[in-house]
Specification:
Blueprint (H helix, E strand, L loop, with lengths): L1 H20 L4 E4 L4 E4 L14 E2 L3 H13 L1 H8 L14 E9 L5 E9 H4 L15 E10 L4 E7 L3
Parallel strand pairs: 2-4
Antiparallel strand pairs: 1-2, 3-4, 4-5, 5-6, 6-7
Length: 158
């Protein structure tokens, strides 16, 4: 009887762990942003993630707040001479989100911003996109939501 109880507990734990990581890609849409949240077991650019984590909508919201607060840095990296660009510029991008945990235990939110004109030719919900070029049509932002730090990586110019 004791072995059956232990076996049932073990099966329960294994089932719950697999369920947590075997989630589907989730679509998220607010009045400020739209995107797709990829689960912890989804590979990035064909490589498995060993330190992946599932992101909650609250974590996405916090990353978006950090992104919005640093809009000027994004504008300066992409269009430094265009004074007409406002925060609404961020609305023209659809996002892909995936999470990881760094060596300090901080949640890292990776955001791939894809301009809607480029996104219409891609299936953003199928796979995390990988671009070698694209300028500010595609921008990667990496946000440490525990520290509120970020880095912005436009995709170069051809």
């Amino acid at each position: 009887m004791k072995r059956i109880t232990i076996l049932l507990c073990l099966l329960f734990v294994i089932n719950n762990v697999c369920t947590v990581c075997a989630q589907e890609v989730k679509h998220i849409k607010t009045c400020s942003y739209e995107g797709y949240i990829f689960p912890c077991n989804h590979p990035v650019h064909g490589f498995p993630r060993l330190n992946g984590c599932n992101l909650s909508t609250n974590q996405i919201q916090k990353a978006e707040e950090i992104l919005s607060a640093h809009f000027v840095e994004i504008k300066d990296r992409c269009r430094p001479n265009d004074a007409q660009i406002s925060k609404s510029m961020l609305k023209i991008y659809i996002r892909q989100y995936w999470g990881s945990v760094n060596e300090n235990g901080h949640v890292i939110v990776n955001i791939c911003l894809v301009k809607k004109s480029v996104a219409k030719n891609e299936n953003l919900e199928d796979d995390i996109l990988y671009f070698l070029d694209g300028g500010c049509e595609i921008i990667d932002v990496i946000v440490d939501i525990n520290e509120g730090t970020y880095s912005i990586i436009p995709h170069g110019y051809a």
